[in-house]
Specification:
Mean pLDDT: 94
CATH architecture: 3-Layer(aba) Sandwich
Strand order of the largest sheet: 3-2-1-4-5-6-10
Largest sheet: 7 strands, parallel
Helix content: 40-55%
Oligomer: single chain
Structural class: alpha/beta
């Protein structure tokens, strides 16, 4: 089987590509525009083989997408390419509308025409898997606002959409497009909505790596508002396993929520990282007594969702998926990875990886 992964140089996409190359015999075509967060260093040369190929292509470019489909003839499309940073979407929503909505539409149309052209057996086996986020559902009641004794609700696959940010609204729009292409044209689709991912190769602007690297440098650790916002944390390699399971075993037309069942408020995430660094890196930058002393509370961002929490019972019951990592084991692995792979994140921070990716389209 040949799998076309869009956004395969991004955080979750590269974890999926690494999983396919190391744990399966499938071929993988990594299609990525290589924007600021796309980094081919996230796919080590040691795991590449003749089963791997890379195409530097924008999903909004129909002509190039047609060429990729004609050249590689994929059996499966796993669509992860997206602009994904909420703060960036607030500052400049246009790029999110263009990539996440127009790009998904363009990819759907190219995939649909390709699928129609296939012989019956290959047409029956073809799948279009759209990878989305729990942020499309909006937010959930926070424990501090709930009556005592009341059960806290969770996002399920039938939770109504109520996105809060330009990012989540653009992802909600793309989800609706994918479902419409299934109902109107019969395109065999699957959708997954995941909770907050963390783990190795995460771009440093995101919360977990930002806190790790800032603490190591003795810089302030910014926390929005009072840090009480709750997220369900999912280790990225657990997510990659779930994605491949859905696209190979899931039922056409179905949606599966993927979560780690690890609800943590943002402040506790920051404190967990600080505690791990106290243990693993006791020698701190000059003038720093405790990593926690670096925590700084900053003005909350507009429309900040209070709580996300995934009910992942469907994928657990239907496909027998469970996360391997708890929040504690996954976060320990993540902190250790950043401590042991400074060459990767230093290149990212210094912009050196951009020179590599821009110097040769094949890189």
């Amino acid at each position: 089987m040949k799998i076309l992964v869009t956004g395969g140089a991004g955080f979750i996409g590269s974890a999926l590509v690494r999983h396919i190359l190391t744990d399966t015999e499938y071929d993988v075509v990594n299609l990525d525009k290589l924007t600021y967060a796309g980094n081919l260093d996230s796919i080590p040369d040691s795991i590449k083989s003749d089963r791997y190929s890379f195409e530097r292509v924008d999903i909004c470019d129909a002509n190039e997408l047609n060429r990729v489909f004609d050249t590689h003839k994929p059996d499966v499309v796993m669509h992860l390419a997206a602009e994904s940073h909420v703060d960036r979407s607030i500052d400049g929503p246009g790029e999110f509308i263009h990539t996440n909505i127009v790009g998904t539409y363009t990819l759907l149309e190219v995939a649909r025409k390709y699928w129609i052209s296939l012989e019956k057996e290959k047409k029956d086996d073809f799948r279009f898997h759209h990878i989305s986020t729990d942020e499309v559902y909006g937010d959930l009641p926070h424990p501090k606002n709930m009556m005592k004794g009341k059960d806290l609700p969770l996002f399920t696959e039938v939770t109504p959409y109520s996105p809060s940010s330009p990012y989540s609204a653009s992802k909600a729009s793309s989800d609706h497009l994918v479902r419409a292409w299934h109902r109107t044209y019969g395109l065999p689709i699957l959708i997954t909505n995941c909770s907050n991912n963390y783990g190795p190769y995460h771009f440093p602007e995101k919360l977990v790596p930002h806190i790790i690297l800032s603490a190591l440098s003795g810089k302030s650790l910014p926390v929005y508002g009072d840090g009480s916002q709750i997220r369900d944390w999912l280790y990225v390699e657990d997510h990659a396993r779930a994605l491949l399971l859905v696209v190979t075993k899931g039922e056409i037309g179905e949606t599966y929520n993927i979560g780690g069942h690890n609800e943590q408020c943002n402040l506790d995430v920051v404190y967990t990282i600080c505690n791990l660094l106290e243990e693993l890196v006791p020698e701190k930058p000059e003038g720093i007594r405790n990593y926690r002393d670096l925590v700084t509370f900053v003005e909350d961002r507009p429309g900040h969702d209070l709580r996300y929490a995934i009910d992942a019972s469907k994928i657990m019951e239907k496909l027998n998926w469970v996360p391997n990592e708890t929040f504690e084991t996954g976060m320990r692995k993540t902190v250790k990875w950043y401590l042991n792979n400074d060459s990767w994140w230093l290149r990212v921070i210094n912009g050196d990886y951009k020179m590599k990716r821009l110097g040769n389209g094949a890189e």
